[in-house]
Amino acid sequence: MKNHASSLSNKNKFLILGCGFSGSFFAKKIRELGCTVLTSSRSEKKDPDSFVFNSESDMVPNKKIFDGVTHVLSCIPPDKNGNDPVLKRLKNQLKSLPLEWAGYLSTTGVYGDTEGDWVSEIDKPNPIQKRSHTRLNCEKEWIESGLPAQIFRLPGIYGPGRSSFDAIKNKKIRVISKKDQVFSRIHVSDITNAIIYLLQNKNSLKFCQIINIADDEPCSQIEVIQYCYDLLDLPMPKPILFEDAKKELSPIAQSFWIENRRVSNKLLCETLGYKLIYKNYKLGLKNCYLNS
What we know:
By secondary structure, the protein is α/β, with parallel strands linked by helices. It has helices at residues 21-32, 85-95, 130-143, 164-169, 188-200, 221-232, 242-245, 251-257, 266-271, 281-290; strands at 13-17, 36-41, 50-52, 71-74, 101-107, 118-119, 149-154, 156-158, 176-177, 185-187, 210-212, 240-241, 262-263.
């Protein structure tokens, strides 16, 4: 497929709302393509390309921030009332712009528990966690906003500085065993590159409003941790059964273990033609290891 790289250039201006791990990575890569990128933070920074947006304290961006904006990416989770803070405060402002695209980073948690079965975009969401219910509500807000919205459902995100290597180094690793439990995951590079691929080729690809971004090989957490210890040439601690470990886990940590699903990337990779950089955790963790 021809790569229409010229479709993203210095003529484009991105607003990235919620510039955490994924948002920061995206901002860096999109700037390398020559785009103007402004990123939000909850308080004032010295960075001239940063602006303040804090919905809880009613700190909204100056109207000049929006001049010339063509693309928006929201990485901000629901607020404490379960609403989308970006749309709650900025929807009218965004709707007044000639936006080409508005992206929203959501979670595969909206699918709920499938007891290890595969889920895809055609499956009806069935969230069981409160936070997943609110994410699904936010997805609906974006879809019904009248903006050119595209939703990306993400599983566990990792990358350099945020992987099992860091948990091992910081002595925060928990080696937990639960029979038949699997997790899907995605390297932060593939989140960014998949979105850029879709934007660069949007004129030649079918528009899909909801897309999973996940790697090819869901697997157990123990496999991932064992691989890290092997790369470090260290012995892995003896695993603890989940039933024994859960009393020491926080409620949110426990909640990740009560859902079990495999997330399909066939729409992204087969139908739309994106080629993963890190097809599985071994390739992705080698990248983390070399950049740690």
